[in-house]
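Fold this complex.
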Amino acid sequence: MSNELEFLSRRAASGKLSRRDFLGRAAALGISAPFANSLLSSAARAAGPVKGGTLKAGLVGGESTNSLDPALMMTQVPFAFGKMWGEMIVELSPEGKLENRIAEEIGSSDDAKVWTLKIRDGVEFHNGKTVTAEDVAATLERHSDEKSKSGALGYMKGIETIKASGKEVVLTLKEANADLPYLLSDYHLIVQPNGGKDKADAGISAGPYKVTTNEPGVRHGGERFANYWQGDKMGHADQIEIIVINDATARTAALQGGQVNMINRVEPKIVDLIKRLPGVTIRNHAGPGHYVFIMHCNTAPFDNADLRMALKLAIDREEMLDKILRGYGSLGNDFPINASYPLFSEIEQRKYDPDKAKFHFKKSGHDGAVLLRTSDVAFPGAVDAAQLFQQSAAKAGITLEIKREPGDGYWSEVWNKQPFCASYWGGRSTQDQMYSTAYLSTADWNDTRFKRPDFDKMVLAARAELDETKRKAMYHDMGVMVRDEGGLILPMFNQFIDATGAKVDGWVDDPHQELMNGYALAKCWLQA
Amino acid sequence: MSSPILKLIAQRIALGIVLLLAVSVLIFAGTQILPGDVAQAILGQSATPESLANLREQLGLNDPAYIRYFRWLGGVLTGDLGTAMSSGQDIATSIKGRLWNTLFLAFWAAVVAVPLAIILGLIAVRYRNGWVDKLISGLALASTSFPEFFIGYVLVYFFAVKWQIFPGISTVYDGMPFGERMQAIALPATALTLVVLAHMMRMTRAAILNVMQSAYVETAELKGLSAFNVIRKHAFPNAIAPIINVVMLNLAYLIVGVVVVEVIFVYPGMGQYLVDHVTKRDVPVVQAVGLIFAAVYISLNIIADIGAIVANPRLRHPK
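Structure:
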């Protein structure tokens, strides 16, 4: 890069040179417009965030039934809006490290059973009240109450007592858990005044934006909270707005027409088209989410290990990654963990092998068709994926019978009920969380009916192990076990594919969830 | 004409109320047949047995169906539509805004579509079988034959993306200035107009043509009246009953049948609201919306009937 160009880009970024003039100068120097644009945005990032303006996002995943109660947040819009007005106890940084928020410090006893959260001073709720240890304790109490409807109840149940004293909250666990801080980054655990026990859906917390508009299923809006404790890091736009646009075409058109600055869930099949649009940037990045076919290990014919192995060998993962995700993902290996987990280690990649599949299928003694249920809602492209599976299995002499189920009621009538169906998982922040949610014998969402006391022991042992090397080895063994003996067929990990419009800056890829783990509106800014 | 007409009107209205009650039973029964229940639907993929049981208990789903029906009917009669199970919001309050939005959109679509359809119908009759007639019919049929989403996307592509004249998404909100609101609904209203235009236009044309064959029109023509006057004075008033009927039918469609258009343009009306709650098995909302839709249909039909009776004296004296 020539010195002149660098100089110009810095001038442009600091507002001394107009964008148009900069592009003109760059063109004169023989620089193509896209490259010049990227120069400009890196210069702008270096120049720091710009305050002001209204950032708008058009997002899928909002319904008129949404509530501001953090316990009930399920889909993408309440999740993203929650990160705007809510403040967390801890959060995961884009690099996967723990980032202290309302907790200033987290410490544990040597056996990882007693955890102490030190509450930060001077963090203020939107109603002017200061955040206290009591508020944090009440929040955790509400989400760990047996009667709670909270989406976080599954892990919060492991907490035996919660005590607030002075500036500290002390948690005593039923069983040791070295991963507790990661569990506290669950997006449901927004800290509310008195834990939201008075009015859970008041929309009051200590996040960078105050709720100004809440029309579920239509739009949500917020204005910058002047007393936000981290005002230099987040909350650059004066106002933020989320418009619920569930229709993919309308969402793209809104971005293209400039009515919104960012959208989520771009469909892999149209990514290449959208890339060509001027000013639009595709933001795709890997994460822990995965698309799966799940077999119940305790239900015939899937209670036969050879049949399960035959089906695992009969799926062409590469073809599926290529045709369903158009390459916007990575190969799966029949265990739910990939490189986005901190303690991941490689296991030999399973490949499509019709001959071996045929061998195991014969050995299983099963004959006739195998019924696979699928639906549009299982994951985008699930019906096509099932058909690809059918074709690759046919080459191994296995007949898959595909039943297409209505999307309505799929999660209540088919998933976790029928023995073999398509589904998806969003992933979790740690392996312990993922395995505890879906692979422990006692897990509520054990959708493969993988019930192995020896595996349970491994999970509990790894949870209590504080030595990282040992833990990593334990997780490796657990991965091998699920991969070879479990009921999970995991052909691919999907990427999150978001897109931003021309003036958006400050984007940082975050592997945890879409839209920079929900913080895109708070951490991005509009170029001046 | 006063007493027999009033009696007829009263009869129609009474019939309408009976019908509405019958519909309410059907709606309630229908929502009971849906697979799964609201607790399961609210919690979705993350349902645990305990949270399911807690939620069912809290929502009163353990009572028998008839008790829930009468509890609901009693509420509706006193103006209380209940609270949405899934979000805990008061249904009447959330519906009020939505219904107003839907009526607003339907009103402006109708303001454009109805006169346009009737005038185009009249013109088509005047120049029947000529190129003008064929052009009008052809275009109207074409716009009706395209699915709504196609028309919607074409409008969005040209007016919102390419030329950027109107917004492609029509999120309206309370307190939005009238001008902005009109701009926001420009595209969905156009889409709706195109969708309902042909039906009304063709019906107007057919009804008038039908009348044109009668003896009195021939007489009028023989009197030497101009073609337009024949249609205006003699044919149109006699064709008004079927025209009112089809207009009312389309008005009803503008209110209850716009789900697709609302989704494409992200318009916060009743259709989207209903769809969201159906997937959540939010029975009270589905019932309330169903009942409102039924009431719209029934009352527009009553108006059509009454209009036809008023317009056509022969209908006032049923044999």
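DSSP finds 13 helices and no strands in chain B.
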